[in-house]
Amino acid sequence: RGLGGTMVNLVVWSTADGTKVQMDRPSKVWNNVSYWPGGGGMLEPGSRPAQGYFIVGSWGEWEQVEEMQRAGDGSFVSTVTLGMNGFETFQIWLDGEGDRILHPATPTAPCHTAVLGPSEPHIAGGLSWMIDGRTTLHHAVVDKPAEGADAGAIVKVPERVPVPTRDRGFPGEQYEVKLLVAGKYRAVSWRKLGSIADASLAALIRGKYYVAGSFNNYDFQEMTASQTEEGLYTAEVEQGLDNGEFQIVRNKDWEQAFFPGDAGLVEGPHVSTESVFRLGGLNNAFIIEFHRTFDQEGSDTKKVSWRRRRSSTQ
């Protein structure tokens, strides 16, 4: 018997062309300590406020600035009320100026993180802290009674189960936000106060809703709350020569956007750059309706619909 074929062993090596490929590795500065209570060093003059530190966030539509008060330990504090969606995002502005922003290194940063800046909006945009009072769901295997032929037995079933978090809270609960400054070290933290906002803050907790779409250059057009039906908001929009893409946004905060999901459901609140509602048709005026209700168990039901009002050429 014979054995035919070819046996090959190939060793390949190469080098990159430095004129076509970036050879230098990107440098990264690692901060081993985000905050040191004993201080150390000094802030640059441009990083110090002349008047004070001001907090601005989603509860005030990123427009209302509030001065933080100096506490006895030398920190700066402010009270934040959790809104309807169960989370709020914020930044801190030096002297209340929107082009001198203190921010974290990442979007939706958690408690006890270092402060960067002051930075201009094109750098700090999207970089904010998030107080998240929502329940977190994690994958787990739980015991459940079997059904059918195996009735009476206990079987293992994969399921998403709620897990309590440090900041777990409900709409209306309040948190104390604290800015710590010790020399060149700065950090932001917060704690739940255990207090509930009074009835005078009901409108703050409920918030406002806006339509943002291709027909208004993704600016925020406020929706009108119904005086007769709880949780119903409407807006009339003029559609041009496009398919009328849009999302619903609470408090002008893109982290609190609502958009279409699977099986006709409305997803959110959270950020999405891909999924949008589409009106269809050209040169028409539409009335957009957003209906949001909560049952006694806190289940959040959302519905978005629209109807043609009239032709803009009429």
Concise description?
With 314 residues, this protein is mainly beta.
Report the helical percentage.
under 10%
Secondary-structure content class: mainly beta
CATH class descriptor of the largest domain: Mainly Beta
Main β-sheet: number of strands, strand sense, barrel status? 6 strands, antiparallel
What is the approximate shape?
globular
Mean pLDDT: 87
What does this entry look like structurally?
The chain is mainly β. It folds into two domains: 45-133 and 167-200, Sandwich (Immunoglobulin-like), CATH 2.60.40; 208-311, Immunoglobulin-like, CATH 2.60.40. The chain is built from two helices and 23 strands. Strands 1, 2, 5, 6, 8 and 9 form a six-stranded antiparallel beta sheet that branches. Strands 14, 15, 18, 19, 20 and 21 form a six-stranded antiparallel beta sheet that branches. Strands 3-4-12-13-7 form a five-stranded antiparallel beta sheet, with no helix packed on it. The longest helix is centred in the middle third of the chain and has 5 residues, at 202-206.
